[in-house]
Amino acid sequence: MGHETAGPLAARVRELLDHAQDGVVPIVRAGEPVLRRRAPAYRGELDAGLLNDLIASMFATMRAAPGVGLAAPQIGLPLALAVIEDPGAADPDVAQTRERYPVAPMVLVNPRYEPVDTDVAEFYEGCLSIPGWVAVRRRRRTVRLRAETLDGTSTVATTSGWLARIVQHETDHLAGELFLDRAEPRSLAHESLAARWAGPADPTLAAEALGFDLSGP
Fold first, then answer.
1. Distance between CA atoms of residues 21 and 205, nearest Å
2. Is a pLDDT exceeding 90 seen at residue 116?
3. pLDDT tens digits for range 3-32
4. Confidence of residue 215 (pLDDT cuts 50, 70, 90)
């Protein structure tokens, strides 16, 4: 990728970082148009230093929220870039049921994914751009991730379990989609009830109490 230092995107990134507090920048909320537009591919518009500063700020912002993934549109940048990091589930039963294990920091440049098979998984999900609400989202259990490294090298990896869920969630952001767009409407729960319904390893109790179906794709 190139090392251009000028241009509107670079200026926008510099302005954003100039106003960061300890690297943390504001997260935009649902209703902002940037979250509903397909993010343009990254084509080397930022020099290496500015790109690294942006990525560091995205990680800082994600961790402060806290969250396990953050896409550039969520900080107001129309750019196909996302970061992921997950400490995993502390409860062994939750970890096993959700296949949620620690994920080291990842940077996704121009990511896209495709299903590997027809297996699906249904769990509660939330989003940093929709604070205060969680809902059950059916997603592919295993997807093939295609992305680029920071130097432009193409990579392919098969991801499963919770990592696959995060990959789909963040990559969908870059296509202008929010997780609620295809979530189970009757599962929607306010954060004051999140522990009750999203806390258990799976949403079976929520489905019975709130009246939605978990069966099949």
1. 41
2. yes
3. 445 689 999 999 999 999 999 999 999 999
4. confident
170 is an active site residue? yes
Nearest Cα neighbor of 169 from 70, 77, 31 is: 70
The pLDDT > 70 percentage for the chain reads 96
Give phi and psi for 36, each to the nearest 5. -115, 15
pLDDT at 66 over 70: yes
Does the annotation list 169 as a binding residue? yes
Q: Which amino acid is at 37?
A: R
Residue (of 54, 48, 56) closest to 80 by Cα position: 54
pLDDT value for 192: 97
Give the list of residues 6+ apart from residue 36 with CB closer than 8 angstroms, or none: 176
190 is in an annotated binding site: no
R_g (Cα) of the chain, nearest Å = 17
Distances (CA, A) of 109 to 78, 93, 103, 185: 13, 33, 17, 31
CA distance 110 to 137: 23
Instruction: Please pick, among 170, 177, 184, 191, the residue that the annotation labels catalytic.
Output: 170
CA-based max dimension of the chain: 56
Kindly indicate the confidence band of residue 189, based on its pLDDT and cuts at 50, 70 and 90.
very high
Q: What is the pLDDT of residue 28?
A: 98
d(CA 123, CA 125): 6
Residue that the structure tokens 């912002």 belong to: 61
- Domains detected in the chain: 8-84+103-210 (3.90.45.10)
Place of tokens 């900080």: 75
